[in-house]
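Appendix C. Worked example: N-acetylglutamate synthase, GNAT family
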Amino acid sequence: MTWTVRPEPPGSPVAAALWRAYCTEVSDRWYLLHEGRRTDPGELEREIAAESGDDLVPPRGRLLVARYRGEAAGSAGIRLLDATTAELTRVFLCPAVRGRGGAALLVRAAEDAARASGATRLVLDTRGDLVEARALYARLGFTETEPHNAEPFAEHWFAQRIG
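Step 2, the predicted output written as structure tokens:
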């Protein structure tokens, strides 16, 4: 099988490497768009360290890692916001494996994990410049909604019934 998706402890070396790759990409993308430069290395380190991943530990959360041909290739996390709502977060695929079905597989696995945790609704936020992410969520049946949080970089909010 080409793809596998399994739970992973947020503090594992694999999870840490994927978190670093995710932060680097989305931060650099924002700074290049808005300021014409990459992220300051010190700021990037603070951003990476600011999120421990503790909110992605069962029973209130879960981190999933996708592997492509056995190699860690992406991640997705869920965290319960309340008894019936989970938030999708940290959806990331390494550039080398994009376009091979891994993103949809990760999101569907996250939906299953959220449903297994009792959630009937999955929400997420993203930025306007992450057009690929917005297209993925729309293709997978998420609909744009009113904001469910006050995240400073969030510009689009989506939701989907999962139960």
